[in-house]
Design goal:
alpha+beta; three-stranded antiparallel sheet
Length: about 300
């Protein structure tokens, strides 16, 4: 069961079971020898992480592209869940009478910046009040848990008044703007950061166009990728071969994965996806060194 004959005139090729035996018997020395980067790639790796002073998502995206170039496989990089990041600071900056920017600094190192429109030109005092409400609502809370409760009167009550303030002196325009600012920061942020680089390598990995299309379509389904990565990390599995991925379209692929650790906590992962005949020692070694450097970069940054 370790070898199979694809067709009558073909030689034998390893089955998933055969590759599993091979991977399980790889030694640390095997991996180190096969995965030793040449001078040029070591320099590229060092230069990249020494100068990777980007926003979090940009760093993860560029890391996926670098890993794909180093291995010639499709790279998958995941980062900290945005919804779990704690808001360190948040404020609105007026760009002109009609447009402003909501800026939030998160504990995962990212900076969220979203544009917002003003219904009416806000005064400096109103902007200051909005920022006070943002700090009250967001700062110190996980972005996925933050909710805004307006103190302003409802529309029917406001429409019967000549002033936008209710009996408690709450400015309805401030409350409306603060609510939209909070929504701009939190809406759509309950997502996972998943970046896939080097998908073009799949076209040379498989002969059948249908197989390439199926794999690409699967990689586009972010929740599938996230589920696979989480399952591997929870089981402590660094290599999933063929059907071991649990994803039928990826049964012709293998995934090599390593966790990204910051301050002793796993906050993401670095991995490559390729055909089951991939160079496992080289993939394991490269994924390991990239995950280590990324973890250190995120710790420092």
């Amino acid at each position: 069961g370790y070898l199979a004959q694809p067709h009558t005139s073909a030689g034998r090729v390893p089955t998933d079971k055969g590759y599993r035996v091979y991977v399980d018997h790889l030694t640390t020395t095997d991996v180190a020898k096969a995965g030793r980067l040449d001078t040029v790639n070591r320099q590229r790796l060092g230069d990249f992480f020494d100068s990777a002073h980007f926003r979090l998502e940009e760093t993860l995206h560029r890391t996926s592209l670098l890993l794909a170039q180093l291995t010639n496989y499709t790279a998958v990089v995941t980062g900290p869940s945005v919804s779990e990041a704690v808001v360190r600071s948040a404020h609105v900056v007026a760009l002109n009478d009609r447009l402003g920017t909501v800026v939030a600094v998160l504990s995962n190192g990212d900076i969220e910046s979203e544009q917002i429109e003003f219904a009416t030109p806000p005064s400096d005092l109103q902007i200051a009040l909005v920022n006070a409400r943002l700090n009250e609502t967001l700062v110190g809370k996980a972005i996925g848990d933050a909710t805004f409760t307006s103190r302003a009167p409802d529309r029917s009550e406001s429409s019967r008044r000549d002033t936008p303030r209710n009996s408690d002196g709450v400015d309805a325009e401030v409350e409306s703007l603060a609510g939209r600012a909070v929504a701009a920061v939190t809406d759509g942020k309950r997502r996972e950061s998943v970046f896939v680089g080097g998908t073009a390598s799949l076209t040379t990995s498989f002969d059948a166009v249908e197989v390439v299309r199926s794999v690409l379509e699967t990689l586009e389904q972010q929740y599938v990728v996230v589920s696979l990565v989480r399952d591997m990390l929870s089981r402590g599995v660094s290599v999933a071969i063929g059907a071991e991925t649990g994803v039928e379209p990826l049964s012709v692929c293998s995934v090599v994965l390593a966790p990204v650790v910051r301050d002793g906590e796993t906050i993401g992962s670095v991995g490559v996806l390729g055909p089951t005949r991939m160079n496992y020692p080289a993939a394991l070694a490269t994924v390991e060194v990239v995950s280590d450097r990324l973890g250190r970069r995120l710790t420092e940054g």
